[in-house]
Amino acid sequence: MAMNLDQEHELTHGTVEQRVVYESGNEMAAYAASQINYHIMGYFPISPSTEVAQFLDLMKANGQHDIKLIASDGEHSSAGICYGASTAGGRVFNATSANGYMYMLEQMPVQAGTRFPMVMNLVCRSVSGPLDIHGDHSDLYFALNTGWPILMCRDPQSVYDMNIIALKLAEDPEVRLPVLVASDGYFTSHQKRRVNTFANSEDVLKFVGERPPAGFPHTLDRNNPITVGPYMNEPDYINNKYQQSQAMYRAEAVFERIADEYAELTGRKYSMLDTYRMEDAEVAVFLMNSASEIIKDVVDDLRRQGIKAGSIAPNVIRPFPQRQIADALKQVKAVTIGDRADSYGAYGGNMSNEIKAALFTHGNHTTQVISRVYGLGGKEFYAEDGMHLFELAIEAAKQGRVEVPFDYYGHTPGNPDAAPARVLNPLKFEDLKTGLITVTKNEETGKLGVRIPPLRALTKKPKRIAPGHGACPGCGIFSGLELFFKGIEGDIVALFHTGCAMVVTTGYPYSSHKATYIHNLFQNGAATLSGVVEMFWERKRRGELDELGLKDDFTFVMVTGDGGMDIGMGPAIGAALRNHRMIIVEYDNEGYMNTGAQLSYSTPLGHRTSTSNIGTVQKGKVFHHKDTPQIMAATNIPYVFTGSEAYPQDLVKKAAKAQWYAQNEGLVYGKILIACPLNWITKDDQGTEIVDAAVNSCFFPLYEVEHGQTTITYNPEDKDKRVPLTDWLKTMGKTRHLLKPENEAALHEFEREVDRRWQILLTKHEHPLL
């Protein structure tokens, strides 16, 4: 973490010693968590919240806290880890964003309904689709009905403060609910600001309490066994929900009491509702989080013009500050409410409709309400945008009515005449079906024989992906994929998981894909493509595709990578068990490179990533890498293979086999090791040599599993080319630390595991029944 803990201590207004730092919202969330020293953080990387886990891991590497950081296989899993940990009586922390929050959404009401406290940071981001990684509140609005109190943060200072207040609120005996701390992705999460923090962690613990409050049941108390999450019928269920509802409403008074205690310590006061120059305001604007600071400058400008303007922003939206909002608006003639997300079909965003309900409930039928959806997908909000929102309120106040109660602001209406024209014509089938590759089945052995021409003969075959994508220099994804595609004859339909290969090829309105392309998220690509596959075969059976002039069947290919076979493993196994006729090809760059090089289950032991840092007490990833090809082979699919661009003939032959099996028998899985110069910390032009060393060190053996029989297709020992594992490790900046004397034990453990897996593979190669 960039936190400079040697900065000069500063005592601000309040009674506790503080220091000033200059940090981002994500850094402050991590720093607050480190001062509390939570027991457990179960996490999964997703932008823009990934940095929270990264900063905590870096601090952990240097011994600055004792939090057990558990990298999960997906956000649903991370929510389960956190829930399980919270039932066991300790303090639990997490951070997520957007689709990651959506993936864990099923777990959120479970935790609230069973009343186990924890703190989770929601670093707000647009929910797909289409995919957008920038900030709005579309994920936040899904949280409104989960039963979690929600605290709002407009700047890094409030991120720090609210994270400390949140734990005390969550654990209060009158509340006992998990609490969400929401900040704006990239606006607050990444922008650095001046922040006052507790100078000493001891003072933080004195405020929140040094351990979870005693007297509440948990699952580790052998003398008081409990049942967590029982099946519950009517009338018990409604009674349970009533008690949960009452706890949420009690959270308002508890928050205000805790906020008063915090203000006495720090000099910083957080009310349920922040009001600015609202004492005599006649027009107002309601905004949340980062935009609510910008609007204050607009208020000041209007006041200088003699216009009685004011602004309001909530610090808490669950429980909703209904009474406070109604009171703030009782003399206001018109208010514009800005929602950074839509509630589709409801004629206003969630905040607009809740504020209307607040006014109605408290007898205000005169204030004119204008609802505008703004700032979606990270669209910047400037003072002139704030002025526009005030102009709407000023006009409504003058007219005594609202011309357009609900609309979007900042959008550009579509124009059919401006639709982008096709740049690349569809690939010609005749160019894709070269006839130079032949695959024949040996009826006696059941295995396939492949004949390919010299590779130069395939250079005329058009590339499936056009140049002009945004991949990093030296990225091995596209050289590896294009080599694989050389072995595929005819038309393809490709689905790409979220990841580097997807992001850098499809920046709207441009696309590098010459063939039909589909995107779905990490966790459900295999299921999505299986639906496409089965629809193709069913429509073909019904004769509905005859008019399209298909000269051959499509080959369906799912491209995954960047950790996609962690979060996407379950659906991939499901597709394998159903045996759909498709190919899953994984480019393995040994991490979640598209979100900032966090560790994946494919990251090998000891390798450095942004969540397996090198420090005084931690030396890289602490557990071994997942053997995905062997997992997929265990599902008994027809064909599994590994490949490398360093051995092009081998990869092209395997691609041809993969196509035959996918069109004739069922699902195929292949794994291609590819170089990532940026995050492996290597030179751009050395990718082929590096993956070649991985193969010759037996870390990444080249083999295939055909109908359960393993065949090593390249044995470096037979070629007298096997090299020590260290020859591969020394080529990468992320692994050179393993060659230092102090890391000798980790190196030897890694070497033993690589050799163990190689010996098992040799044995399977020699014995067809294994």
Automatic annotation (TrEMBL):
A GO MF term: thiamine pyrophosphate binding
Domain named Pyruvate flavodoxin/ferredoxin oxidoreductase pyrimidine binding: residues: 32-258
Translocase among keywords: no
Gene3D superfamilies in the cross-refs: 3.40.50.920, 3.40.50.970
Record InterPro entries: PFOR_II, Pyruvate:ferred/Flavod_OxRd, Pyrv_Fd/Flavodoxin_OxRdtase_N, THDP-binding, TPP_enzyme_TPP-bd, Transketo_C/PFOR_II
This protein's UniProt keywords: 4Fe-4S, Electron transport, Iron, Iron-sulfur, Metal-binding, Oxidoreductase, Transport
Domain Pyruvate:ferredoxin oxidoreductase core: 281-385
Example of a GO biological process term: response to oxidative stress
Keyword rRNA-binding: no
Domain Thiamine pyrophosphate enzyme TPP-binding: 553-659
Name of a matching Pfam family: POR_N
Family: Belongs to the pyruvate:ferredoxin/flavodoxin oxidoreductase family.
Protein's recorded name: Pyruvate synthase
Organism per entry: Paenibacillus antibioticophila
